[in-house]
Recover the amino acids of this structure.
């Protein structure tokens, strides 16, 4: 199965390294390989294992930090093979336009792009009246956007930041954060439904969020199912589970507006929706799903 | 498009002073009407933002291939007063000194065609391409540091090239004032294994053909060593991860001192800058020059590999095959130059981001063999279209600080191109049309598809009509290696 992958983007100094630290602190139930720009302050006094396309450092918590020495494509292959991670996280450089890297990832068959996380420096948005070209692309590409350094701006200024970001990206989930901490559960970012979750029959619970669960017999039309997913309300951050189409059964993952299907032997439709205050949608979602069942 | 834009010449447009209160100089756009209409809205915004920077002289320029980039437009030109102006990494580009090199052969199309596949495959093997590709040149840190201060000269001294190559490179392949003490260890680490590599994105190496009907100025072509049905080699690459890291390092420094220490307020943080004469500005200038040298060295080593490959495939010495360089010219730099402004000799720091130096005949700083012709300007088109060899003009000296366009310029985002084009299919189509492509990634090929770019012929027409360059010849590709 493909390894889900996260791209972390944002300007220089927006808090990408802090975000990576939070991942290491917060996500304990998954093996995560982080491809970072530099080990710097994260990896101290640890032994660096030199590979062909990456140098790696294993941390005690289970995370593996990797620094690129060769081509990204080969680095990913090397990591998948050697580390067998549940997830890969790639930190982009602050001056990079993430669209190029996203296209590269879509081309690598070992991995599946799960989501793009953009870190926005609220203070910088207030200080510089215009969001530049690269900054816009970073925001545009985000599925989750952390409005970071929120403590450096007033409530009113924060609203301006929100509005500016929304003008560029109206579908991403926004979080208000300080040092990349806030009312957010890091497991949400790592909620891709993977083989391990299927086997252990446990779902990753997102403490701060509500979830809806449905089971159905029968088959869905793929086209209509995809349409249903892309029309889900914005408060639903993730949907995942098993789904049966005419041509077989699949494991599906939905986040932002990104939909992934991977062939997977299963005999039932099982769907899980995760989001904020989404209880009110239970009836509606059920009705819509029944409507598109064949 | 901006409503108040004024036509001030056949292919010159102006956004006048006062369009926005914060402008220090007007904006000038060189484009045909068609190209102007195709430009994305943000280009105008960015050119206006540039026009507000301290010390900017005459105009904030956009070349006909202009499109939006980090802070400054790509295809943007801005000359700042060296005494009172700023230097900005966003006005140079992160691939510092990214540029073009054109190499001749005395082989004809008919001689190369049967060996094309072999040639391209071997070049693909010997000139590494793709993100993070590592070169075969294994350097120690101290050797790499020498290279950063000496540029292509270092390579030629070590046997990677001929002395004449240096004469035919901008700055003789080694810009003065490069100072490795201004370089971070991280930048060294990122660049040390990359000398002799193309890199990804729009970087490429092409085998091109001089079709008889594509020679525009026969006399100049002859002087430059071009003949009908000749095969030439053109490649496009820069300073790789090294240049990016230098830019990253100094952007951070500039952001921290710009307002606090120098009281410079900017609209978009991507325009981060420092006074050219400040410590930070001078440090960056010296570090950026290491990027310039790294890039000249990179292209020098690639040339050496090309000569090896041709020599092997055609079983003859590179000298016998006539593998002489025409020229090497960059399109991502900032250079200290002198111009007469309002009757006064003035030192300026000319930012050329996706814009090529195009010095006219008789100018200082161009090789003696080209003194009477003007400086060769090498313009790479997209993989599918074609490329050009032009000459710099006196008019460019007077109007655009000796500058012209650099390529064809994007018209759509990578994402859009990828949605519209399938790389695999494109490679097959190109092969049917007689162009053999080798690439690290299909997605990469799709990103660089012809439809993602402006029409190169139209871009060249614009600079020729404006008189800031003179057309010599157009080349068409028959083989391409893409990063």
């Amino acid at each position: 199965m493909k390894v889900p992958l996260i791209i972390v983007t944002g300007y220089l100094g927006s808090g990408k390294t802090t975000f990576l630290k939070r991942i290491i602190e917060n996500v304990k139930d998954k093996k995560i390989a982080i491809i970072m720009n530099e080990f710097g302050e994260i990896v101290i006094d640890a032994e660096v294992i030199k590979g062909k396309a990456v140098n790696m450092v294993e941390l005690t918590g289970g995370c593996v930090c990797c620094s690129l020495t060769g081509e990204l494509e080969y680095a990913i292959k090397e990591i998948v093979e050697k580390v067998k991670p549940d997830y890969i996280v790639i930190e982009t450089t602050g001056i990079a336009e993430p669209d190029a890297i996203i296209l590269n990832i879509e081309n690598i068959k070992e991995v599946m792009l799960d989501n793009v996380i953009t870190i926005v420096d609220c203070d910088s948005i207030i200080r510089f009246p215009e969001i530049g070209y690269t900054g816009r692309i970073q925001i545009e590409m985000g599925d989750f956007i952390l409005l970071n350094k929120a403590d450096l701006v007033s409530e009113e200024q924060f609203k301006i930041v929100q509005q500016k970001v929304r003008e560029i990206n109206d579908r991403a989930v926004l979080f208000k954060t300080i040092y990349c901490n806030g009312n957010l559960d890091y497991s949400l970012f790592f909620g891709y439904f993977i083989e391990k979750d299927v086997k252990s029959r446990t779902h990753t619970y997102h403490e701060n969020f509500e979830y809806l669960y449905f089971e159905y017999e029968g088959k869905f039309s793929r086209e209509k199912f995809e349409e249903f997913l892309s029309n889900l309300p914005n408060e639903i951050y993730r949907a995942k589970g098993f789904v049966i189409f005419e041509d077989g059964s699949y494991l599906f993952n939905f986040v932002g507006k990104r939909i992934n299907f991977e062939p997977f032997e299963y005999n039932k439709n099982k769907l899980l929706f995760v989001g904020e205050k989404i209880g009110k949608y239970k009836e509606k979602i059920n009705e819509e799903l029944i409507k598109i069942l064949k | 498009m901006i409503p108040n834009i004024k036509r001030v010449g056949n292919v010159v447009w102006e956004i006048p002073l006062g369009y926005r209160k914060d402008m220090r100089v007007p904006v000038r756009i060189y484009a045909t009407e068609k190209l102007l209409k195709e430009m994305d809205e943000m280009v105008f915004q960015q050119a206006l933002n540039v026009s507000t920077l301290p010390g900017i002289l005459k105009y904030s320029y956009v070349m006909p291939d202009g499109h939006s980039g980090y802070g400054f437009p790509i295809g943007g030109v801005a000359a700042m007063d060296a005494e009172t102006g700023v230097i900005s990494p966003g006005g140079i580009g992160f691939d510092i000194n990214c540029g073009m090199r054109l190499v001749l052969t005395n082989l004809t199309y008919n001689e190369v065609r049967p060996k094309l596949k072999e040639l391209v495959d071997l070049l693909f093997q010997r000139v590494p391409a793709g993100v993070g590709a590592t070169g075969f040149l294994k350097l120690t840190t101290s050797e790499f540091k020498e290279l950063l201060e000496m540029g292509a000269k270092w390579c030629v001294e070590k046997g990677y090239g001929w002395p004449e190559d240096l004469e035919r490179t901008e700055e003789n392949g080694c810009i003065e004032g490069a100072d490795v003490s201004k370089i971070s260890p991280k930048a060294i680490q990122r660049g040390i294994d990359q000398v002799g590599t193309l890199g990804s994105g729009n970087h490429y190496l092409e085998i091109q053909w001089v079709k008889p009907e594509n020679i525009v100025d026969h006399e100049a072509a002859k002087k430059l060593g071009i003949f009908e049905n000749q095969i030439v080699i053109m490649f496009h690459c820069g300073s790789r991860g090294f240049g990016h890291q230098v830019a990253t390092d100094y952007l951070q420094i500039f952001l921290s001192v710009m307002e606090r220490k120098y009281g410079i307020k900017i609209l978009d943080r991507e325009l981060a800058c420092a006074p050219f004469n400040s410590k930070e500005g001078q440090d960056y200038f010296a570090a950026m020059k290491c990027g310039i040298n790294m890039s000249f060295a990179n292209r020098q080593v690639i040339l050496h590999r090309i000569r090896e490959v041709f020599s092997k495939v055609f079983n003859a010495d590179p000298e016998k095959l006539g593998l002489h360089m025409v020229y090497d010219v960059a399109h991502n730099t900032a250079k200290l130059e002198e111009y007469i402004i309002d009757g006064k000799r003035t030192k300026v720091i000319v930012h050329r981001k996706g814009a090529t130096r195009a010095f006219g005949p008789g100018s200082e700083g161009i090789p003696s063999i080209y003194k009477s012709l003007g400086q060769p300007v090498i313009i790479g088109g997209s993989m599918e279209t074609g490329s050009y060899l032009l000459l710099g003009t006196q008019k460019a000296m007077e109007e655009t600080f000796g500058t012209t366009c650099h390529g064809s310029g994007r018209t759509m985002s990578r994402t859009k191109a990828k949605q519209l084009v399938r790389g695999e299919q494109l490679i097959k189509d190109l092969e049917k049309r007689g162009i053999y492509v080798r690439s690290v990634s299909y997605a990469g090929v799709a990103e660089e598809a012809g439809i993602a770019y402006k029409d190169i012929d139209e871009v060249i027409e614009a600079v020729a009509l404006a008189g800031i360059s003179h057309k010599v010849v157009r080349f068409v590709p028959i083989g391409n290696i893409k990063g």
